[in-house]
């Protein structure tokens, strides 16, 4: 025969320690308030240091057209225009004559002309050393 014995239904007889939970809550609240006060103080400190750094002096106020640039590296105001100007300068150098080093007689020739000369004359070769093939 099967034993139909069930354990008695029951409940936890010990209560939660309300004093410990209250102490933890108060401690957490105090920690949050202290952290917020420290962060508020740091914010005011950093704000004051930045304001002092970028506040115009008497000399700067006397010359209103002078602007203080931020420290390097600075971003390009319009990189597309700068890139177009750079490419235009490179194209100009590729397709024009000019001096590279006047003292040593080094000149720059257009790329098309350089390819024509290379096709006519061929690539320069180094003389082979004796005994090597």
Please write out the topology:
Blueprint: H1 18-54, H2 58-62, H3 79-94, E1 98-101, E2 106-108, H4 111-121
Antiparallel strand pairs: 1-2
Describe this protein with a few key phrases.
single chain; 133 residues; mainly alpha; 4 helices; 2 strands
Major beta sheet summary: 2 strands, antiparallel
- Measured as a percent range, the helix fraction is 40-55%
Oligomer: single chain
Cα-to-Cα separation, first versus last residue? 105 Å
C-alpha Rg (nearest Å): 41 Å
Total strand segments: 2
The parts where pLDDT drops under 50 for at least 5 residues are none
Order of helices and strands: HHHEEH
Count of individual helical segments:
4
Q: What order do the strands of the largest sheet run in, or round the barrel if closed?
A: 1-2
Description of the molecule:
The protein is mostly helical and 133 residues long. Among the domains are: 18-59; 79-121, no CATH class. The protein contains four helices and two strands. A hairpin with a 4-residue loop joins strand 1 and strand 2 (106-108). The longest helix is centred in the N-terminal third of the chain and has 37 residues, at 18-54.
What can be said about this structure in brief?
By secondary structure, this protein is mainly alpha-helical.
């Amino acid at each position: 025969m099967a034993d139909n014995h069930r354990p008695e239904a029951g409940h936890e007889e010990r209560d939660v320690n309300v004093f410990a939970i209250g102490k933890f809550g108060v401690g957490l609240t105090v920690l949050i308030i202290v952290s917020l006060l420290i962060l508020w103080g740091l914010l005011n400190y950093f704000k004051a240091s930045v304001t002092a750094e970028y506040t115009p002096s008497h000399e700067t106020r006397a010359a209103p057209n002078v602007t203080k640039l931020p420290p390097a590296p600075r971003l390009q105001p319009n990189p597309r225009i700068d890139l177009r100007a750079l490419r235009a300068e490179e194209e100009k150098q590729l397709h024009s004559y000019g001096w590279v080093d006047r003292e040593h007689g080094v000149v720059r020739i257009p790329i098309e002309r350089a390819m024509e000369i290379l096709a006519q004359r061929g690539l320069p070769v180094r003389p082979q050393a004796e005994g090597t093939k």
